[in-house]
């Protein structure tokens, strides 16, 4: 058996890239910016209240996606089951809220 035949039979090893702290620092800064935007909207006195509430809700939703995606690592492979369980939980909670509102206002 020649040296070429031996190298052809060796399994290929795939290296897993480490994520490193760079992404975490960027995401942390993004989280701080989202928090500062929400704080500035609440602290500003002359801004319409409806606009402030909508802006804060949007910032909160973005913050949730950032937290789940990067700090809870749900963006990585192999996290389909936790994502499905959370989606089902959101569906159940949303259904309960809608039914409670329907029950109260009927």
Task: Provide an overview of this structure.
- The protein has 106 residues and is mainly alpha-helical.
- The chain has two domains: 21-75; 77-106.
- It contains four helices and no strands.
- The chain has helices spanning 3-8, 21-43, 49-71, 80-105.
- Helix 2 packs antiparallel against helix 3.
- The longest helix has 26 residues, at 80-105.
- It is flat, with a radius of gyration of 24 Å.
- Keywords: Cell membrane, Membrane, Transmembrane, Transmembrane helix.
- It comes from Paenibacillus silvae.
Give the helices and strands, then pairings:
Elements: H1 3-8, H2 21-43, H3 49-71, H4 80-105
Helix pairs in contact: 2-3
Transmembrane segments: 25-45, 51-71, 83-105
Main location: membrane
Membrane topology: Multi-pass membrane protein
């Amino acid at each position: 058996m020649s040296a070429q035949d031996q190298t052809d039979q060796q399994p290929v090893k795939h290296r897993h890239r480490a994520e490193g702290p760079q992404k975490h620092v960027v995401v942390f800064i993004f989280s701080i910016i989202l928090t500062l935007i929400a704080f500035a909207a609440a602290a500003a006195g002359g801004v319409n209240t409806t606009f402030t509430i909508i802006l804060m809700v949007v910032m909160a939703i973005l913050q949730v996606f950032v937290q789940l995606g990067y700090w809870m690592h749900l963006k990585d492979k192999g996290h389909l089951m936790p994502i499905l369980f959370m989606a089902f939980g959101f569906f159940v909670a949303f259904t309960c809220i809608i039914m409670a509102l329907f029950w109260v206002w009927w």
